[in-house]
Fold this sequence. Notes:
2 helices
Amino acid sequence: xxxxxxxxxxxxxxxxxxxxxxxxxxxxxxxxxxxxxxxxxxxxxxxxxxxxxxxxxxxxxxxxxxxxxxxxxxxxxx
Length: 78
């Protein structure tokens, strides 16, 4: 009288399988695996020395530059 036997485990597994279905269980296990992978990746990034963030300067696109030039030209004319 103690511990969990094989029959109890099989009954619980059968009930879970009936409630959730095989596809849902495999989907949950896949999500669980992705979560563990993400956690491990985050932990390894925390261990790495932090490098200072470099500011990124974006050049204006052709359309934005053209519309800005047109707006400036309109201001000087009128």
